[in-house]
Design a protein that fits this description.
The protein is α+β, with helices and mostly antiparallel strands and about 325 residues long. It contains five helices and 14 strands. The chain folds into two domains: about 90 residues, Jelly Rolls (Sandwich), CATH 2.60.120; about 210 residues, Peptidoglycan recognition protein-like (Lysozyme-like), CATH 3.40.80.10. The strands form three sheets. Strands 1, 2, 3, 4, 5, 6 and 7 form a seven-stranded antiparallel β-sheet that branches. A five-stranded mixed β-sheet has the order 10-9-11-8-14, covered by helices on one side.
Amino acid sequence: MLPALLTPLLATPAARASSGAPEPVEVSQRAIELSSRSAQPTVSSKTPFAMVGLRWDGQPPEVMAVRVPGGEWTAMEPAPGTTASQPVWTGRTHEVQVRATRDGAPAIGVAAVLIDPGRSPSDAVPPTSRDRGYPVVSRAGWGADESLRCREAQFDDEVRAVALHHTAETNDYSASDSPAIVRGIYAYHAETLGWCDIGYHALVDRFGQVFEGRAGGLERPVIGAHSAGFNRRTSSIAMMGSYTGHQAGDAQRDALSGYLGWKLAAHGLDPTGETTLLSEGGGSSRHPSGTEVRLPVLLGHRDVGHTECPGDDGYALLPGLRSAAAATMSAVR
């Protein structure tokens, strides 16, 4: 018999329909090898797509960026511990230009991953649920296709810290784009990166919408795939967008502090405190396996990994978020 908390993850279409949840939305991905004859080749597709990632052989390209022809270039960051970039939202298009160079020349062995996150009538106003103690757009609410996951959720014995991330993509998206962005990240993380599910536990867009990420329950100690070497005994939330040279607005900051106050309280953690974590090493971890590291309870991804995440402006939010989360917890006591 399945545990009661896992049953909703395997709900039938009829059960989802009776609950008012949207139907799962199909997401498709395909990879196209980049031409080695051009420094910024144009990739075209007869079928539309709305997100792009890069994957490569060997060392990552030194320069990576993407744009819809005639638009602004968006720099791409490597997904730590992988041979692929973070995906970037382009908006619905049939064509995209890519920069991928090493030593000033077109990088060899690079492919563009074109992602069509599909569309749902509920994207315009995704349903919010309080079933798990905090108002979020659940996985069912943003149209997660649970068949993409290659295993059931895995659980730790406790949560000791929460890591702040950014998704390292454009900040130019609408509120109705956000569910599709989450679906695209989910499919890319689960299939292209091989993480079996979305790496982050929760995501918050620039409009203050909070989305449930990794399956298993936001209130539970679910093991994620967000900070190499420190995925055990941690949770995570990612700001949707890029936060170096771009600051989060009031709605996003308020949603972050509210969610973090709830999440940290759920695990009995002090937002302004410190904890000790044991590194499992590997990937982009800053610390070798077996190293005990003293860290803030609310930390930034760059505290434990060789990465820019959560961006300079995102990282600068942490002191204020710690104080705001602590105030939120005091107000509800």
